[in-house]
Amino acid sequence: MYALNLCEPHKNLEWQIKLLYSLLSSATSQPAVAHRKQVISAAFPVYTHLKSPLAVNVRPLVRTITRRIIMRITIPAATGETNLMAGPGDIYAPEISAAGNAFAHAIYAHSKLPLRVFEAARMATAIINGCIICKNWRAARDVQQLGIHFGVIENGEIPSEAFYQALLDGQHQHLSARERIAVEYANAMGERPRELAGDEIFWGQLKDAFSDAEITDLTYCIAGWMGMGRVFHVLGMDRGCAV
Fold first, then answer.
1. Is 134 inside a domain boundary?
2. Residues 27 and 112 grouped into a single domain
3. Who's near 205: CB < 8 A, 6+ residues apart?
């Protein structure tokens, strides 16, 4: 139904291919997966260089394969909509969808958290949710596509790509103490909310690291990422997106 560019900028095509591998296994039969992996692997050196004439032969292959990965909800054919938040909610539940989108926008526009803390917690939530676009999203690079040009992206150091890749690999050694606590809090909210509510030891650590205002800010941010990220992933909206 939708061609997929794997939610990555064209400058990082290697990641697109790697991500395509993970998607294929659940989208087609195993023999088809094996065959397509062989074809893409052979094309890999070519595809990473857009100026190569042979790259023209690879792009249609990628488009053909990725069209097999579809959204779960049927919606009318695309009409040139470029809003990254657009989806079936705009058709079937517009008032609820609009409220969810407004919540997502407010998080980026109004969070007072340091950007690295914000992004560390967001990535932890994205990993739990399995949301593809969320894992490949970089706030400082991409939030302008939501029409936001201020807010949390102005709050300190912009994380490097190595920062994100380490989180995706489950590595936290590069994080500061506050960033690690934020990741632990996001993980607990996403996977162990009942235990988290009564974990006095962890709450002591959290309150040593963050003010009440920061904890409240972080909690609402994580809640927004949990909710909207799961909507995108469960309905397949993260499979037909472009970042």
1. yes
2. no
3. 181
Q: How far apart are CA 111 and CA 232, in angstroms?
A: 22
Radius of gyration of the chain (CA): 19
Whether 29 and 108 map to the same domain: the answer is no
Q: Which residues contact 116 (CB under 8 A, 6 or more apart)?
A: 156, 157, 159, 163, 176, 179
Residue 187 in 3-state DSSP? helix
Please work out, in degrees rounded to the nearest 5, the angle formed at the alpha carbon of residue 183 by the alpha carbons of 175 and 155: 65
CATH of the domain at 163: 1.20.1290.10
82-139 pLDDT, tens digit each? 566 678 888 999 999 999 999 999 999 999 999 999 999 999 999 999 988 899 999 9
The CB density around residue 190, as the number of other CB atoms within 10 Å, is 22
Q: Is 188 found in the same domain as 221?
A: yes
pTM of the model: 0.71
Buried-exposed string 94-112: b where 16+ CB fall within 10 A, e elsewhere: eeebeebbeebbebbbebe
Q: How far apart are CA 22 and CA 16, in angstroms?
A: 10
User: Nearest-CA neighbor of 128 among 167, 174, 180, 92?
Assistant: 167
Q: Is 33 part of a structural domain of the chain?
A: yes
Contact 96, 89 (CB under 8 A): yes
Tens of pLDDT along 178-234? 999 999 999 999 999 999 999 999 999 999 999 999 999 999 999 999 999 999 888
In a shared domain, residues 122 and 28: no
Q: Tally helices (H) and strands (E) across the chain.
A: 13, 0
